[in-house]
Amino acid sequence: MKSGASPEEIAETISVAILMGGGPSVVYGIEAFQAVQQYLKEGVE
């Protein structure tokens, strides 16, 4: 987010990683998305 990426752009990047990486990417993609949500919830900018 500090680099200017929106939450939607991050979600799209995670989606592409899942499409290209298969099964294990789903687990890490979910963790990454949860980290983004937590980051936004805490209001860190």
Question: Can you give a write-up of this model?
Answer:
The structure is a single chain. With 45 residues, the protein is an all-alpha fold. 76% of the residues lie in helices and 0% in strands. The protein has two helices and no strands. Helix 1 (7-21) runs antiparallel to helix 2 (23-41). The N and C termini lie close together (7 Å).
Q: Averaging pLDDT over every residue, what do you get?
A: 88
Q: Largest sheet at a glance?
A: none
Order of helices and strands: HH
End-to-end Cα distance: 7 Å
Radius of gyration: 11 Å
Task: Determine the strand fraction and express it as a percent band.
Answer: under 5%
- The percent range for helix content is over 70%
Count, helices: 2
Strands, count: 0
Shape: flat
Low-pLDDT sequence parts: none
Determine the structural class based on helices, strands and strand pairing.
mainly alpha
